[in-house]
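Shapes recur. One chain:

:::
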Amino acid sequence: MRGGVVFDPMEWLLVRSYYMALLPQLNFRGDYLAAELAPSFCNYDGDLREFRWDVVNIVMPPAEVKPSDDGLLIAVEGYSVKLLRDWGLSPDIVVTDFDFSPEEVINCDCLVLGHAHGDNIAYYPKYASRVRRLLPTVQVWPRGCSLLVPGFTDGDRAVYLAYYMGAKEIRIYGFNPGKVVKRDDEIKRMKLEIARTLINRIMRKAVSNNAAMINLI
């Protein structure tokens, strides 16, 4: 992929306004610098349509149930890559901002959608430069080889991605805002509530558009 791709600009504007209003203490000004930086690490020349998106299994860090082995397998964060490995599975795609077990994605035989934003500029290059196949994602209008997907957390962004890629069935394993597996503080709890709201929004859109069937497992 050479230039930037934007999925649903109006949805992105709505979602961005929402999370910026709820978490003004985060470094959103740095998102623009991150969008400039990220494309230099892009080493993916393919097309996301090379994957089969009919059935998508999304595995989040609190997952306790082994996902089905049919369909596309997306891991959220490096921690979920380890979970899948322990179950004898390998993800096709990883959605991550490199802040939860990032070393797990370095040697992954998968496509990594590495998210760059204002709060991870300092360590993004350390991991992005070592990934075998990296397609950067960003939070503001892309400047080069990168993808702008509506969403805020890695989890809800993965669901948005599957929805926009035309999935007919999306199975979400382990989404549990009440179970914090990385850290437990006010910002993390707010992020999980934002993720809950956005995933519920995607589910409503899927129903109203007679599109994907989305199941929480």
